[in-house]
Amino acid sequence: MLLFVQVMVDIAHSNVDRLFTYALPDALPVAVGQRVLVPFGAGNKKIEGFVLGLSERFEGGANIAVKPVLRVMEPYPALSEEQIALAKWIAASYDCLLVEALRLMIPVQLRGGKIKEKIERTVYFPAEENIEAALASLCKKDGAPRAPLQYEALQLVANCKADMRISDITAFIPGSGPAVRALINRGLLKERGHEVYRSPLRDMAITRDAPKELNAQQRLAADAVGAALDAHAGAFLLHGVTGSGKTEVYMHAIAKAVQEGGTAIVLVPEIALTPQAVERFRARFGERIAVLHSRLSAGERYDEWRRIRLNKVDVVIGARSAVFAPLSNIRLIVVDEEHEPSYRSEITPRYSAVEVAQRRCRLNGAVLLLGSATPGVSTYLKAQRGKLTLLRLTERVQNLPMPKVLVADMRAEFAAGNTSVFSAPLYDRLSACFAAGEQAILFLNRRGYSTFVSCRGCGYVFTCDACDISMTYHKQEDALKCHYCGSVKHLPKVCPECGKPYIKYFGIGTQQVEEQLHEHFPSVRALRMDMDTTHGKNAHYEILSAFERGEAQALIGTQMVAKGLDMPNVTVVGVIAADATLHIPDYRSGERTFQLLTQVAGRAGRAQKSGQVVIQTYTPEHPAIQLAARHDYIGFYTGEIERRRSALFPPYSLFVRALFAHTDEALLCEAASRFAEGVEKAVQGALSKAGADVRELIFCACARAPIKRKQGQYRYQVLLKLARTAHASAAMQAIYAYTNAHRSEYFAALEVNPQDMF
Ligand code: ADP
Ligand code: ZN
């Protein structure tokens, strides 16, 4: 008999990051994963908690009084045992509290019971009753109805032979509301409540679509995944050029998993989770789909979660956090555009959805399918090493050609006196495109706050001597700085390469492009899509729909316009300044540029009309640009992985950053320096204990963070670079342990391979 449960209370504090035992009152059925209400602490405050264990005996000793569980929160376990195992892995791998990891698995709305189920009330005529007799009881002796509305309503419901909503009855028989109430009171109609799920898709009609006949390459890929589904193991990288039909391969694999009684998760980047994308899945898989993304209302999120938990769903499609969806019997997890940085959570608990997906597949005997036109170099390396099976789609479907890409040399444009944001080739193509009534996308990436410094005469870019990374101009100090090692350079008046005084620190925004487009093409309507124009819940969708309907001929935007759009009338894509991402101070800037250029170029010519792409740049010879123009991923990968290997950048090393923040800069600096010294010793100690060379800690440096002050607080960082060897995890554990033992008011965050170093 069960007498005790072990509970993790829902309080995120390291002091209570352990299990507490509670007694079960008689006959209270409780399962592992269920949420309960328990008295906690000296004041017996009522706190929610997760049941993580059951036992018949209490090990704590006879003289300790065990408090009782007060009640269960839901009649079903909020967490499956598999999710609990996943949470434990997350807590250990990303160094967070177990309760923080458990919270990832449930909607916030569940906690604290703030949202209620929506109940819809219906009435019905009991099948066992006799309708003639019931109607007769409403009539006078002469057979005329005493209450005509009641008579009519009863007849309607009985004929319906199913439940009817009262609103449906009053729609048929106006003013019959009180009559229906009276029928219920007389016992002639019965009433009952049904739970209804608030779904973002509920009112969208489904247009069914049949699976497409796969082409030969798609067939090979789908068959390989199918065999892995049969074997209950496998991890794949589907590398397919833009428009090669990757989604169709995903859908075939999902269909197989579902037909065999399993379930599947599809992760897509938040930005690509457009209604059109969801519609494609819904057309194929119908009602048994749930959608999870950040724009759902609280009620929708809660209801989608419960539909999944209660096995009413086979396929979950969603952004990053959908990887935690409470599905059971998972057979397949698809991660589309696996290279997207948005799969990493930057807030505590930090995690990578791709890594979590991989773990979850292992826990379920499921298959992992990563897809991309531009796989991350780390991912591709895994495929090369056999940790992922590589599948290839090398051609667009239906023999559509890849778009033609022209690289415009902005140095030559400048030399020829063109100071506008449009090069001559882009201007010509835009003129022709607009004249033909076609559409254009103009892309400009102004990611981060940073700008790089370059010579407009020769294209020279100021880079750090030690790090091979472009340096950032700091206006305040009028100096160039390296965001990796902190070294500083004076900014000269003339270019050190060509001696001309054309040094410029780069920074055009989308607004400037909009302005100039209007000057050059006054009759062309343009839409702008960036952070400033997409505040509202549906702003993103509305801009895209307006563009799709042809209400504007040009769409100007940041990376929001680069991904997933499939618009047949778009024939010209212009990249205003490819250099903007190339020289952000990050070892991944070449990779990100290549990915973005490939993605944005892939928006052109997706239907019958062929596409033209112009990439404007001051460094036309840069491999990321040249190779993107030639659609040569393998060429790019080969050069990039070699560069990473020789410079010891990830995946050959790990960056760990501890961030410190405080209003008192002097104290902050001291605290950060002390931390740097301490953690360096701790890591070196751990490395020698593990029998490793202490030089596997490549460096450990304390410096001001690139953003020196944020929200009134000064910021410092301790940056560690570790060689990725068999000893890296011992070093990481030492960093975690040291950090946890030396948390102070100055400490802000610990990041492993942070997305950016700002
Ligand atoms: P990707 O995800 O690789 O960019 P999609 O899956 O979006 O490509 O496919 C591009 C277009 O081609 C879509 O409109 C899709 O419906 C269509 N498509 C995919 N596979 C086939 C096929 N085997 N036959 C015909 N059309 C296909
Ligand atoms: Zn120069």
Give a description of the structure.
The chain is 32% helix and 23% strand. β14 and β15 form a beta hairpin. α19 (623-629) runs antiparallel to α20 (633-647). The longest helix is centred in the last third of the chain and has 25 residues, at 665-689. The structure holds adenosine-5'-diphosphate and zinc ion. Adenosine-5'-diphosphate binds next to α8.
Stretches with pLDDT under 50, minimum 5 residues? none
What CATH architecture of the largest domain do you see? 3-Layer(aba) Sandwich
> How many domains make up the 3D coordinates?
5
Largest sheet: 7 strands, parallel
Helical content (DSSP H or I, runs of 4+): 25-40%
| Name of the CATH superfamily of the largest domain | P-loop containing nucleotide triphosphate hydrolases
Which hetero ligands occur in this complex? Answer: adenosine-5'-diphosphate, zinc ion
Q: How many angstroms separate the termini?
A: 56 Å
Q: Any idea what the radius of gyration is? A: 31 Å
Round the mean pLDDT to the nearest integer and report it: 87
SSE arrangement:
Elements: E1 4-9, E2 20-23, E3 35-40, E4 45-55, E5 71-72, H1 81-93, H2 98-103, E6 118-124, H3 131-136, H4 148-160, E7 164-165, H5 166-172, H6 177-185, E8 190-196, H7 216-231, E9 235-240, H8 246-259, E10 263-267, H9 275-285, E11 289-292, H10 298-309, E12 315-318, E13 330-336, E14 344-345, E15 351-352, H11 353-364, E16 367-372, H12 377-384, E17 389-393, E18 404-409, H13 410-415, H14 424-435, E19 439-443, E20 453-455, E21 472-474, E22 479-481, E23 488-490, E24 503-505, H15 510-520, E25 526-529, H16 539-548, E26 554-557, E27 570-575, H17 579-582, H18 589-601, E28 612-617, H19 623-629, H20 633-647, E29 653-662, H21 665-689, E30 697-710, E31 713-723, H22 728-741, E32 747-752
Parallel strand pairs: 9-16, 9-17, 10-12, 10-13, 11-12, 13-16, 18-28, 19-26, 19-27, 25-26, 27-28
Antiparallel strand pairs: 1-2, 1-4, 3-4, 3-5, 6-7, 6-8, 14-15, 20-24, 21-22, 22-23, 29-31, 29-32, 30-31
Helix pairs in contact: 1-11, 4-6, 7-8, 18-19, 19-20, 21-22
Bound molecules: adenosine-5'-diphosphate (ADP) and zinc ion (ZN).
